Amino acid sequence: MAPLRCPTCGHFFEINYTPAMPFCSERCRQIDLGQWLDEEHTLPVDIEKHLEEQANRPFDDEDS
Ligand SMILES: [Zn+2]
Q: Which residues does the record give as Zn(2+) binding sites (predicted)?
């Protein structure tokens, strides 16, 4: 299959190698989610901090 382009980091990747479609990695997926869910934290530095905070929390139910 042709590689896809990650909408977060812009790298091309093989879709068979990621569990985080349509992103190249779980990290890029979470960055994208963070941008949508927390519009006050759109700067890259803030996103990194936000992800660190999320990593220390148990997963929330996204359907709730
Ligand atoms: Zn990516």
A: 6, 9, 24, 28
End-to-end CA distance of the chain: 35
- Condensed to tens digits (0 to 9), the pLDDT of residues 31-51 reads 888 876 665 555 556 767 778
Q: How confident is the model at residue 3 (pLDDT cuts 50, 70, 90)?
A: confident
* Ligand 1 is an ion; residues with CB less than 5 A from it: 6, 8-9, 24, 28
> 60 CA to middle of ligand 1, Å?
22
Distance CA 34, CA 56 (A): 15
